[in-house]
Fold:
Amino acid sequence: MGLLSVIVPCLNEQENVSDFYHELLKNEEYFRGEGVDIELIFVDDGSTDGTVAGVKELIARDKRVHLVSFSRNFGKEAAMYAGLSSAKGDYVAIMDCDLQDPPALLPQMYQAITKEGYDSVATRRVNRKGEPPIRSFFARQFYKLINKMTKTEIVDGARDYRLMSRKFVNAILSMEEYNRFSKGIFGWVGFKNKWLEFENIERKKGETKWSFWKLFAYAIDGIMAFSTAPLAIASFLGIFFCIVAFIFIILIIIRQQTVGDPHDLVGWASMVCIILFVSGVQLFCVGVVGQYLAKAYLEVKKRPLYIVKEEL
Ligand code: UDP
Ligand code: MG
Structure:
């Protein structure tokens, strides 16, 4: 008998826990037919509502349900890692609790791994229906930018919803970095990956946990985790301004020696502008270096990715 582990990161999803459970178990018959048991791991990412109580109710009725509860909110990336660490399955799926990741796709994903020889089947939404236009716009620009900056393929519209073989899961678990950006990590480990596409489904109940600024910070983290291009840009700017300064020095010397400069003191306004601009660029570049240093600092401290409060 094989085992399929389904990992569900949850932050304040009390309205969705039971709906998700019932929707997922619609696949029960199919998997039983394939000789595969299902285990469900809810990872509570520091919920402050009735999420944990909801999961415990399910555990009381069904011993295939498990709970890993964090001591506070550590973020979805940490929740996914915790789920992957405690999953025992030969196949492991990661799904959102809000039913935006249709469980009905699971049989098709399972077929791709067992019959078509893939190691992982990922999903991608082909549109962003129901999302604020400004958010979609920035999301698109982010994917364009990050793909220019890194060799790792990061797919626009990719969801974290995927089914993985044990080999693939072990590869993900071997990446113990603190600054986790799964969209990059999944691509980085390689293996044979299949993409399934589906139309965006709006969240049924509750609210999205991602504010615009939370997403923005996540985007910056993503770029920094998978690219050092910003550091290269900083060095490039340095070289560029050195060349400009050199050209100006030569021009000024030539002018001094030939026509002289009758207005020696005029031009202080443009001088101030140049000084302000160049010091702005310098501070920006120091900031970029500082950001990488800060990330390295966090990695070096080797703090755990999450703290478990309760495990059932
Ligand atoms: N989530 C989490 N920790 C967080 C934020 C979100 O575990 O800090 C979970 C959330 O409960 C949900 C999934 O991650 O199951 C996706 O979050 P959400 O639906 O809010 O994101 P969206 O679909 O709007 O991108
Ligand atoms: Mg959602």
The CA atoms of residues 10 and 44 lie 5 Å apart. Residues 9-11, 13, 45, 73, 75-76, 79, 96-98, 100, 203, 208-210 surround uridine-5'-diphosphate (ligand 1) (CB under 6 Å). The first helix runs from residue 17 to 24.
